[in-house]
Amino acid sequence: MELPFDDLPPASKPADSRNLEKRLLYELRAMQWPDRAPRTARRVYTDGACSGNPGPGGWAWAVAPEGEPNGSGGERSSTNQRMEVRAVIEALRAHRNHGEPLVIVSDSTYVVNCFRQRWWEGWLSRGWKNSQRQPVANRELWEDLFDELVARGSGKTVFEWVKGHSGDPMNDLVDILAVQATGA
């Protein structure tokens, strides 16, 4: 399937750099998206929670294997998906000065599939529309997340899925922190 902007030369930036979709599409396409990271990569678990959907929301991240450092926060009115994306953004912000690769481990297929299945490419090429031609939910958060990933650099972030509530100690920890952050 040919996507808009496929005719852009790989080594040149789009002429209209003010167009956010073109800029992000160019920058994200130029990045490497490895399936695996080196064994020495830092593993950061993320999770989002919501008491009701929508309702009070919470997000959390923690570094494996001990859960330290970690961070969490919340919003009075949110959705679970917003909190899942926000957890990743906050984890990346907290690791801005960490130059080594990061593995973002999430139980959210919404987050992981965006990168593993390159959903972002379709969203941006369709002008922030999903495959059903509806506006992409949480666009402002996705824009922040994409900017953080671009700033980290090519090949520096790997996304990994973990089944939620399956007994993974780190996933359980970030789930507890995210639920606590909802304030519910």
Structure at a glance:
The protein is globular.
Features:
alpha/beta; about 180 residues; single chain; Nucleotidyltransferase, domain 5; 5 strands
Give an account of the 3D structure:
It is a single chain. With 184 residues, the chain is α/β, with parallel strands linked by helices. It has a single domain, classed as Nucleotidyltransferase, domain 5, CATH 3.30.420. The chain has six helices and five strands. A five-stranded mixed beta sheet has the order 3-2-1-4-5, with helices on both faces. The protein starts with 19 loop residues before the first helix and ends with a helix. 33% of the residues are buried.
CATH fold annotation = Nucleotidyltransferase, domain 5
Q: Please, what is the CATH homologous superfamily?
A: Ribonuclease H-like superfamily/Ribonuclease H
Strand content: 15-25%
The run of helices and strands is HEEEHEHHHEH
The total domain count is 1
In order across it, which strands form the biggest sheet?
Answer: 3-2-1-4-5
Helix content: 25-40%
Structural class, by secondary structure, is alpha/beta
Main sheet, how many strands, which sense, barrel?
5 strands, mixed
Approximate shape = globular
Q: Count of helices? A: 6
Ends: how far apart?
46 Å
Low-confidence stretches: 1-18
The CATH class assignment is Alpha Beta
Average pLDDT figure: 89
CATH architecture descriptor name = 2-Layer Sandwich
Rg over C-alpha atoms, rounded to the nearest angstrom: 17 Å
Total number of strands:
5
